[in-house]
C-alpha cells in the first residue's frame, strides 16, 4: 500500500519545519554559549574553557548547520606507528578504530597563544574506550614476527594536553598524555589463538602495565593526536568562531 501523495507532501513540510526549528535553536544556543567571551577581556581564556564544556551535548549529535559532524564515537580509518631502537624495531598499524568518551570529558585548563596563533588546553576523561583491528610487524635481531587481530583499550582517570596550531588551510595537532590512573588492554591473537595462554598474558599485561608506560605512552599520544587532527580538520575547520566571539 502506497501513501497518498498529499500525505507525503505534508510529512515533508513538517520534517522541514522541524529541521529549520532545530537548526535555529542550535544557532541560538551556540550564540548564547560564546556571547560572554570577549577577546580583550582578562578572563577570555576562562570563558572559552567554560564554553567548550557547555558544547559537550553536541559531541554525539554534531552541529550540522555549522558543518560540525558528530565525533563521539570518533572513527579513525588507520593509525600507523613505527619505532626502532638498536636491534629492536616494529611497525604497528591500527585500523577501523572507534574512540569513545569525548562527551564525558572536561576541559580543565585553556590558554590562547595569540603570538603563535595556537591554543593549548588540558582535558580530563573519567573513562576513554578504544577498539579496532591491529597488524603488528616486529623485528628483533633478524627474527621477524607478524600478528594481526582485534584489540581494545580502556583508560580510566585519564588526562591529556592538546596543542593546536593553524598550518595553512589545515591544523597541526599534538597531544600528550599527562596521567593515566588505570588501564585495561586486550590484544587478540598475540599467541596465535591459544586462548588460555592469551588470557594469562592479558592478566599479566594489565597487572604490570605501569613499568611499561614509557612504551605505551607514545602509542596513545599517536592515537589521540590522530583523532584530534581529524576532529579539528574535518569538523571544526569551517566553524565560524569569530561570528560568535566579540572583540
Provide structural commentary.
The chain has helices at 5-34, 44-54, 195-207, 213-235, and strands at residues 74-85, 88-100, 106-113, 118-140, 143-167, 170-187. With 247 residues, the protein is α+β, with helices and mostly antiparallel strands. β5 and β6 form a beta hairpin. The model is unreliable at 1-21 (pLDDT under 50).
Compact overview of the structure:
This is Takeout/JHBP like protein. The chain has helices at 5-34, 44-54, 195-207, 213-235, and strands spanning 74-85, 88-100, 106-113, 118-140, 143-167, 170-187.
Keywords:
247 residues; alpha+beta; 6-stranded antiparallel beta sheet; 6 strands; Takeout/JHBP like protein; Haemolymph_juvenile_hormone-bd; To_sf; signal
Please outline the helices and strands.
Blueprint: H1 5-34, H2 44-54, E1 74-85, E2 88-100, E3 106-113, E4 118-140, E5 143-167, E6 170-187, H3 195-207, H4 213-235
Antiparallel strand pairs: 1-2, 2-4, 3-4, 4-5, 5-6
Based on secondary structure, the structural category is alpha+beta
Q: Major beta sheet, specifics?
A: 6 strands, antiparallel
Give the number of domains. 1
Beta strands, count: 6
CATH topology: Bactericidal permeability-increasing protein, domain 1
| N to C succession of SSEs | HHEEEEEEHH
Low-confidence stretches: 1-21
- State the fourth-level CATH superfamily: TULIP domain
Mean pLDDT: 75
Portion in strands: 35-45%
Q: CATH first level: which class?
A: Alpha Beta
Under the CATH scheme, the architecture is Super Roll
Gyration radius, in Å: 22 Å
Amino acid at each position: 500500500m502506497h501513501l497518498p501523495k498529499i500525505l507525503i507532501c505534508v510529512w515533508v513540510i513538517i520534517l522541514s519545519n522541524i529541521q529549520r526549528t532545530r537548526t535555529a535553536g542550535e544557532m541560538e544556543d551556540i550564540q548564547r554559549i560564546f556571547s560572554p567571551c570577549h577577546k580583550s577581556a582578562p578572563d577570555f581564556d576562562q570563558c572559552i574553557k567554560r564554553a567548550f564544556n557547555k558544547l559537550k551535548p553536541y559531541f554525539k549529535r554534531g552541529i550540522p548547520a555549522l558543518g560540525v559532524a558528530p565525533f563521539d564515537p570518533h572513527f579513525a580509518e588507520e593509525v600507523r606507528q613505527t619505532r626502532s631502537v638498536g636491534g629492536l624495531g616494529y611497525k604497528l598499524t591500527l585500523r577501523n578504530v572507534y574512540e569513545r568518551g569525548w562527551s564525558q570529558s572536561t576541559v580543565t585548563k585553556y590558554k590562547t597563544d595569540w603570538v603563535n596563533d595556537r591554543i593549548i588546553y588540558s582535558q580530563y576523561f573519567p573513562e576513554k574506550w578504544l577498539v579496532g583491528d591491529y597488524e603488528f610487524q616486529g623485528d628483533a635481531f633478524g627474527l621477524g614476527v607478524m600478528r594481526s587481530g582485534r584489540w581494545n583499550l580502556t583508560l580510566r582517570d585519564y588526562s591529556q594536553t592538546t596543542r593546536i596550531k593553524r598550518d595553512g588551510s589545515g591544523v597541526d595537532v599534538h597531544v600528550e598524555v599527562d596521567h593515566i590512573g588505570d588501564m585495561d588492554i586486550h590484544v587478540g591473537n598475540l599467541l596465535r589463538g591459544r586462548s588460555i595462554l592469551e588470557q594469562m598474558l592479558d592478566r599479566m599485561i594489565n597487572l604490570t602495565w605501569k613499568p611499561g608506560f614509557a612504551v605505551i605512552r607514545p602509542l596513545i599520544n599517536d592515537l589521540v593526536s590522530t583523532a584530534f587532527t581529524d576532529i579539528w580538520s574535518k569538523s571544526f575547520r569551517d566553524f565560524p568562531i569569530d561570528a560568535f566571539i566579540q572583540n
